[in-house]
Design goal:
Length: 462
Amino acid sequence: MAIHLDLAGLFGAGDDGLLSRERFDAAYERAAQVRDQHLQARPEWRGLGEREEFLAECRTRAREVLDQDGMDAFVVLGIGGSALGNQALLAALAPVYQEWAPSPGHPRCFVPDSIDPDWIGALLEQVPAERCHFNVISKSGGTIETSAEFLVCFEALRRALGSDEEARKHFTITTDPAHGHFRKLCNDLGFASLTVPPGVGGRFSVLTSVGLFTAEMAGLDAQSMLEGAARVDRNLAGCSATEDVALAYALAHVLYTEDGKGVHVHFPYSHRARLLADWYQQLWAESLGKKHDVDGAVVHRGATPVKAVGPTDQHSQVQLYVEGPHDKVFTMLKLGRFERDIEIGEPFTQSPAFEHLRGKRLDALVEAERMGTEIALVEAGRPVCTLELCKLDAFHVGQYFMFMQIATAYAGGLLRVDPFDQPGVEAGKVAALALMGCGEYQQRAAEIRQRQADRSVFVLSA
Ligand code: PA5
């Protein structure tokens, strides 16, 4: 019941493009200070594994919703940190090919994470709104995509049901307890609601009601997920800095970033874990990619996270990884064991073509391919580490979430940026609001229109 990190493949002689142990050890003092500061500040998400109240509110609400008649689908309306964790845990823990159709007695789950009209339209054609329960998730309560999804679905429901009051029963709104448009809507109109704690930002919120309600609705083991997170949280807070695996992970990645290897490939060898890599991608990108450091100096720091899925992407990206530029660090995500044993079988005993597969199992093939890729990368002088989850269950997914969140916070500290803000995202949000005619941003809209008018046009058509 643990996650293990094998860092051996990250180290070399120093003059071979790999990090030397001497350099890593010498930087550890700086890392230990970052860790001390983090533990002293102790952000609120670091206690979430032990906060029973969010799970309790989700359980109560999930029971009410599951008891409603005629509900076939559960749809999360949110974006970014309000969607990616939900997708990741559903894909990892409700493993049904292509569609998340979890335990008996629970609805099909969808997390569209998009306002593409074809995507949302197709979803509502497949599952009519009146057979859905919608969980609107927005920490800030002001995200334009989530507001638009909410309005589309509410409108569809009031048309189908002929009553606002009936339509409201199909919604649960997860948002800040006191602030934002969505909280006001809950207070004024009586929408059922759940809480995102004020001190927890979107991409650090999967272990709050943001992810827990989805888990409960899907019949997944949310309690174990919290226990896994709490285990990692406690172990990493209670050990010494030199034993802190998240710190070692963050430090190695930051040192490589400083050396020009700022592309960080997250490479799960598990199809069910593929969306954990999407979740990680947002966490690492949005937390570390910053214009200013903590003193306000312009630094343009960050690392570029990239998702690859094994063995699939061996036939897509590995050529680049083994022979392309030396600008990457690899994290392979390995499962100690898969849930299913599938024998490859021996139907063609006469054929020598299949001899090496005869009597073997698919999990052995996945692991051979993972090791093969690791060996190819190491022999090509590429830095690789392996994060092993004993298995992909709720407990280990909780461990993974907490581990990566802690590593990200440490990496932010080492890079001297604020990992918990996202001014670059806010800038885009404001511009979109201005372009959609939001009264608050009239001045900004005028600036943007002027800028567009001044732009020279360079369009080619074919
Ligand atoms: O991690 C973040 O803070 C962001 O990705 C947000 O989750 C995203 O912008 C959605 O914001 P909100 O939950 O406030 O609607």
